From TrEMBL:
Residues 4-55 form the CsbD-like domain. Residues 42-59 have a biased composition (Basic and acidic residues). This is CsbD family protein. Residues 21-59 are annotated as: Disordered. Signal peptide: none annotated. Pfam families: CsbD (PF05532). Belongs to the UPF0337 (CsbD) family. Gene3D superfamilies: YjbJ (1.10.1470.10). It comes from Massilia aerilata. InterPro entries: CsbD, YjbJ_sf.
Amino acid sequence: MNSNQVEGKLQDIGGKIQEEAGKLVGSEEQQVKGLKNQVEGKTQEKLGDAQEKLHDATK
């Protein structure tokens, strides 16, 4: 795993926690921020996946 995969996964998980916390307290703003973080995290994770595939292909 590379750093983009790890950081992306952590941001995705953090976003899920933030979204659920927003639901618990009734804050739509926190829910939206959590969803945004999930999307950003998944995007970063996919970038890391592509980097790994490229790295593996050039070995």
